[in-house]
Amino acid sequence: MPLGSIPFVLAMAALAAGETPPADAPQAPAAPAAQAAPSLDFDLDVAPAQSPEEAKAAARRAEQVEREVAARRFMLELHQKIGLGMLAGMAATAVVGNFNLVDRYGGGGDTGRFKLAHRGLVIGTSALFATGGLLGLLAPVPFEKKPQLDSATIHKTLMLTATAGMVTQIILGIITANLDGSLVQVDLVTAHQVVGYVTLGASLAGAASFLF
Amino acid sequence: MKNAVLALWCIASAAFAADPAAAPRSFAVLPEKSEVTFKVIHKFHEVVGKAKAEGKARVLPDGTVQVQVLARVAEFDSGNANRDAHMKEVTEAAKFPTVELKAVGTGFKLPEPGAKAELTLKGQLTFHGVAAPIEVKVNVQAVDATHFSAESRLAISLEAHKVERPSLLTVKVDDQAQIELRAQLEAR
To answer: What is the pTM of this model?
Structure first.
């Protein structure tokens, strides 16, 4: 190699080492690719490749999950809407129930003008409660959940309390109605009132549990 | 003597050209030390979920950086199993199991140990099976010669990724979700 080629070799070595060429060196024209969108034509092999069998099994599982998710979402959205309607109905039942109580035992003249409205609200609210509850219980569970004290667990516990309250109310209502004129009826009416408020409170708290 | 000097120059030049710094450098994201945080905002509260990040990066001699990072949707944990299950439902985790960032940066030089560098990545974020273009700034810090940390934040639109926004008490979550990446990388 002639000595004259040494500067060329040095320049190549400097370029390979990433040195910036001198300012007066001729600038290479910018490559068109540098102006375009970055090329993502590379694969760093991040996700392990699936065999065709594995891919088929995963696709089948995904389809099944998709069906279950669609059913679950429909059922739980309906559950939410029915639940909110049920809460409104339950609050109305409590208000009308109190009017009924005053009418009957609080010097209201026992006209019975709130009796039908109270009964209608009780039946409507109970139907909504049962429907909403069944939707929540029967909704498919496509993804496994780890056992945890979460909003759903708190919601279920509170709604179980409310369910017990609803059942108690029905039993108390039947017993109270059959003890017309008896002294114990007043105590049962008070119990009916207390259980009613507990049921309403548990239901409200159950709905609010998802806010935290 | 002339020939000996010439031979020395040639050997030195060849050794210089074969400098390891001039070869591509590959890095692996350490999943146990890296996480992706996903924040969704609802009128009533904020939900923050976390998952491990996996991935690789390659720095080419010309300063080009290639990055591929992913997080598994099923691994996101917000501390509320019910909410996590709901998140998997809306993001169709069985069908689209990963969130993946694939991007390229240019003109990057690895910082010296203890030093920091900023890198702009351009590429795409694939979430819910929908790839959307993305540009994101990444702060890189060299822990030592072979370990680096990287941090980045970006906002994405759930609807742009065709995710049906979950609702609570009939109120939907905000369309914009925040994603934060904190990764530890090791040279391989």
So the answer is: 0.68
Least CB-CB distance to B123: which of A38, A58, A72?
A38
Nearest CA to CA, how far is B143 from chain A (Å)? 23
CA dist., res. A165 & res. A120, Å (int) = 18
Q: Would you say B43 and B31 are in contact if contact means Cβ atoms under 8 Å apart? A: no
Give A-chain residues touching B106 at CB under 8 angstroms: 34, 38
Radius of gyration of chain B (CA): 21
Q: What region does B126 belong to: left with phi over 0, alpha with psi -120 to 50, or beta? A: beta
Which of the two residues, A156 and A147, has the higher pLDDT score?
Answer: A156
DSSP state of A202: H
Distance of CA A207 to the CA centre of its chain: 11
For B137-171, the pLDDT digits (tens) are 999 999 999 999 999 999 999 999 999 898 877 78
Q: For position B1, what pLDDT does the model report?
A: 53
Torsion-angle region of B114 (φ positive above 0: left; ψ -120 to 50: alpha; else: beta): left
**Where along chain A do its domains lie?**
54-141+148-211
| Phi-psi sector, A147: left (phi>0), alpha (psi -120 to 50), beta | beta
- CA within 13 Å, CB half, B105: 23
Strand partners, B127: B130
